[in-house]
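Take a specimen:
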Amino acid sequence: MQNLDLTNWVLAGWLVIVIIRRQLAPRVIRFKANFFILIMLMGIASIGDALTKQQVTITSSQAVIFGCLSLISAVGFALLRAWSYHFWVNDAGLVMRQGNWLTLLWWALSLAGHLAVDQLWTGSSVTLLLYVGVTLGVQRGWVRWLARRTYPAALKANQQLQTERHQRRHSCDD
């Protein structure tokens, strides 16, 4: 159990540092779901490994209660982080976003709260990667929605740029 716990801490810690650094820097708004899905799949695999190989035992009612509370927390903090962003249109006509100290505070509170409950629930951090993937995916979706509401015309340029980059990447693979 200690190896799995250590792996989750190291991987999630590295991910969160990368994510927060990117969220505090000015960035063009994009939405690529592959990244969130990968993190969530890694989290599901970690939970599966803990349940089958690591002697973590929970009842189905405990799983439902913890899962619902964790999901509410992931969504709630994702919305708070998205609302803390500053949005604008740059000189190229692309919608930009940038987090601030409040974004960082919401990350710290959400992760600390989730880790505390996870430790009480399983005595480990087995659900951390799944939590990070879900909360990050919801946050990105909400950021996109907020940007679309404020800059609907300019956000089309973001989508066009993302589509062009995607096509260029795949045309090079052929």
